[in-house]
């Protein structure tokens, strides 16, 4: 197991400065954004794709610092009713899978997306309540008409390129629990998986709070560090109760 960092945290740094900073901290692996919500500050997919020399130079910068790429990331929503959003997300995903294959990166991380509730919808709909019954009808339509057909095609594309798809289970997206992940995997195949993150350094568990401090991350959010720690503690209690 390697200690890795999602480099979107350091989007204000150049690629070289970011790599130097993380290597100096003892980081061993990096996840690079290629577009979508994470942006592409350190990995310009359009510049690298199908360009062997630029890929070689790019990978040498990473490897000479003792780092490896654990995954490429293009988190976005490929399933909304807004066609321009869906099209952009799909395009970035396909290019990212191709680039991952060319770079020898085993995983592309993203969100499952969330569709609307009918063909003429204007916005995504995230129904999570089983009652009233019409919510179940929406979920059935979403999975049968949008989610499974889309990801079955993308799973086949990823498998063809020898790449795994790592979905982040997140609220607001159709695949947001282990149960929904397994449902999608059963329908679309084993190219579909889940992002799992665990930070361990020197035999000690690093909480998110300590990891952020260790990496000198500047929090650009209204959420307080105390709030982060309380969420971590609550999650541990819930996980321990399930073991």
Report on this model:
With about 240 residues, the protein is of the alpha/beta class. About 45% of the residues lie in helices and about 10% in strands. The protein contains 8 helices and 8 strands. The protein has helices at about 15-25, 45-50, 50-65, 85-105, 135-160, 180-190, 210-215, 225-240, and strands at about 5, 30-35, 70-75, 105-110, 165, 190-195, 200, 205. The strands form 2 sheets. It has a 6-stranded parallel beta sheet with strand order 1-2-3-4-5-6. A two-stranded antiparallel ribbon has the order 7-8. A hairpin with a 2-residue loop joins strand 7 (about 200) and strand 8 (about 205). The longest helix has 27 residues, at about 135-160. The protein is elongated, with a radius of gyration of 19 Å. About 30% of the residues are buried. Mean pLDDT is about 85; it is low at about 200-205, about 220-225 and about 235-243.
Q: What is the number of strand segments?
A: 8
Helix content: 40-55%
Instruction: Give the overall average pLDDT.
Output: 86
- The secondary-structure class comes to alpha/beta
Beta-strand proportion: 5-15%
The dominant shape is elongated
Distance between the termini: 22 Å
Strand order of the largest sheet: 1-2-3-4-5-6
SSE order, one letter for each helix or strand: EHEHHEHEHEHEEEHH
Counting DSSP H or I runs of 4 or more residues, the number of helices is 8
- Poorly predicted runs are 198-207, 219-223, 235-243
If you compute it from the alpha carbons, what radius of gyration comes out, rounded to the nearest whole angstrom?
A: 19 Å
Largest beta-sheet characterization:
6 strands, parallel
């Amino acid at each position: 197991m390697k200690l890795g960092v999602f480099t979107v945290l350091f989007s204000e740094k150049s690629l070289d400065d970011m790599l130097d900073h993380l290597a100096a901290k003892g980081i061993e692996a990096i996840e690079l954004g290629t577009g979508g919500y994470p942006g592409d500050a350190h990995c310009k997919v359009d510049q690298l794709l199908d360009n062997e020399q630029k890929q070689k130079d790019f990978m040498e910068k990473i490897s000479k610092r003792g780092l490896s790429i654990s995954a490429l990331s293009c988190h976005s929503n490929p399933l909304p009713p807004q066609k321009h959003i869906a099209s952009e997300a799909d395009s970035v995903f396909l290019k990212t899978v191709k680039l991952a294959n060319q770079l020898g990166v085993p995983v592309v991380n993203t969100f499952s997306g969330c569709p609307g509730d009918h063909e003429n919808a204007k916005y995504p709909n995230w129904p999570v309540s089983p009652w009233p019954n019409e919510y179940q009808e929406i979920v059935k339509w979403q999975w049968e008409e949008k989610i499974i057909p889309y990801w079955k095609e993308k799973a086949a594309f990823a498998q063809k390129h020898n790449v795994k798809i790592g979905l982040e289970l997140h609220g607001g997206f159709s695949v947001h629990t282990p149960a929904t992940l397994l449902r999608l995997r059963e329908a679309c195949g084993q190219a579909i998986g889940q992002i799992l993150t665990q930070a361990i350094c020197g035999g000690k568990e690093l909480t998110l709070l300590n990891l952020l401090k260790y990496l000198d991350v500047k929090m650009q959010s209204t959420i307080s560090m105390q709030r982060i720690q309380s969420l971590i503690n609550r999650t541990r209690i819930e996980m321990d109760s399930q073991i």
